[in-house]
Design a protein that fits this description.
It is a single chain. Helix 1 runs antiparallel to helix 3, helix 2 packs antiparallel against helix 3 and helix 3 crosses helix 4. The chain starts with a helix and ends with a helix. It has one domain. By secondary structure, it is an all-alpha fold.
Length: about 110
């Protein structure tokens, strides 16, 4: 028999952690806008605004998906342990996807030269 009050408690804690992480995106947006402002250069001007923010949003989307699946699969593990492991796994998935995307772009560039 499944204890519904325990499951409700676990999901409530999970949603509070996720909400906190989503609300943390607001100050990250402003830090990103101020720290990555338009770069100055004589010949070319690079604008990296949004780089930190969108990387964080992508990481957070991966994390929320993985942690929600983990809370559903392992409710007795503890919410903080699940979130910690999910953040580590999310960073690994994000880095692997950047590397894979770079290799795909390189392979496309090489194939278009041939």
């Amino acid at each position: 028999m499944v204890d519904t009050s325990f499951n409700t408690f676990i999901w409530r804690k999970h949603l509070m952690v996720c909400l906190f992480l989503w609300l943390l995106a607001i100050p990250i947006y402003f830090v990103d806008q101020t720290s990555m402002g338009g770069g100055g250069g004589n010949w070319i001007t690079l604008d990296f605004r949004g780089l930190i923010f969108w990387t964080y949003i992508t990481l957070l989307a991966i994390h929320v998906t993985l942690s929600s699946i983990a809370v559903l699969a392992f409710p007795k593990s503890g919410v903080l342990r699940i979130h910690f492991c999910s953040i580590i796994l999310s960073v690994i998935v994000l880095i692997a996807s950047f590397v894979l995307y770079g290799k795909l772009l390189r392979a496309e560039a090489v194939s278009s030269l041939s």
